[in-house]
Task: inverse folding
């Protein structure tokens, strides 16, 4: 039996590590859609969705059960919502700064997960919800300076809405099926949704063309990136089992903090990728934004 204090500290440590991995993953996403042969977000989404097929390795172990109709429909819903959400996300990352995108994404997805929870899970909004909205808006104002193109702004909002919906759908699935079954069939939903992109001739043609021209280095980078996402997810799920869900959710703002710090550290080494992240006087605004967003998460979840 694990000591309570140690379990709590381990839980926090796992979440901090997971958010660091998620931050690294976002920066890799930004690099892939702007500085490799896979510049079309729809093509990158296809590859990301197909990597979910690695879950098929669980089948020979005999631990995956046959799904019922509810599991199938929920898994398909999760798959199509997830694929749509990352499509909007990658489109926004292609044209906007990573720090601007992530701060809006995390705030919108956090707020909408509560709202969708009210409709689908009969949950109650926390009393601090309006206050948290105010803090998020202030933070997003400081970090973004409303410098998005209109299209990028709408894509970030759409991605946040869909991410929030996917959180609720995943919660419904895991309350209906076992963890292994929910994980496996939701991965299959991702793969089916990714395959559906091939029904669009422009996507299909670019997928086949880019697949032939993409280097092994880029392919390995994409695979490693998805592995980072998988490790982060497992860390968060294990942390939930050890500690407080509210505390874990409140630490979600660390992803933006880590992205800010990583870009600040590596901007001089890859200036062509991050040259627009820190304009004169912009660093202070981003620090103030981090404070507003972090406090917003704390009052929302704690």
Result:
């Amino acid at each position: 039996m694990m000591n309570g204090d140690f379990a709590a500290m381990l839980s926090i440590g796992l979440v901090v590590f997971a958010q660091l991995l998620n931050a690294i993953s976002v920066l890799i996403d930004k690099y892939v859609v702007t500085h490799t042969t896979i510049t079309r977000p729809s093509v990158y989404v296809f590859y990301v969705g197909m990597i979910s097929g690695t879950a098929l390795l669980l089948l020979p172990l005999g631990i995956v059960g046959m799904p019922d109709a509810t599991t199938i429909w929920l898994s398909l819903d999760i798959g199509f919502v997830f694929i749509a959400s990352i499509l909007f996300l990658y489109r926004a990352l292609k044209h906007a700064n990573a720090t601007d995108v992530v701060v809006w994404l995390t705030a919108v997805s956090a707020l909408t997960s509560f709202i969708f929870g009210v409709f689908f899970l009969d949950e109650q909004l926390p009393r601090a919800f309006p206050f948290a909205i105010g803090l998020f808006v202030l933070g997003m104002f400081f970090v973004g300076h409303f410098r998005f193109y209109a299209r990028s702004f709408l894509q970030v909002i759409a991605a946040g809405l869909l991410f929030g919906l996917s959180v609720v759908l995943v919660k419904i699935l895991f309350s209906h099926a076992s963890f292994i079954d929910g994980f496996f069939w939701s991965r299959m939903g991702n793969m089916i949704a990714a395959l559906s992109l091939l029904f669009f001739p422009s996507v299909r043609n670019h997928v086949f063309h880019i697949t032939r021209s993409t280097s092994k280095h880029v392919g390995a980078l994409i695979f490693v990136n998805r592995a980072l996402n998988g490790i982060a997810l497992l860390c968060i799920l294990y942390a939930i089992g050890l500690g407080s869900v509210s505390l874990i959710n409140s630490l979600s703002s660390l992803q933006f903090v880590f992205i800010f710090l990583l870009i600040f550290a590596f901007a001089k080494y890859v200036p062509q990728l991050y040259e627009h992240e820190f304009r004169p006087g912009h660093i202070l605004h981003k620090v103030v934004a981090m404070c507003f967003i972090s406090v917003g998460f704390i009052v929302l979840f704690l």
Notes: The chain has a mean pLDDT of 81. The CA atoms of residues 156 and 238 lie 29 Å apart. Residues 4-35 form the longest helix (32 residues).
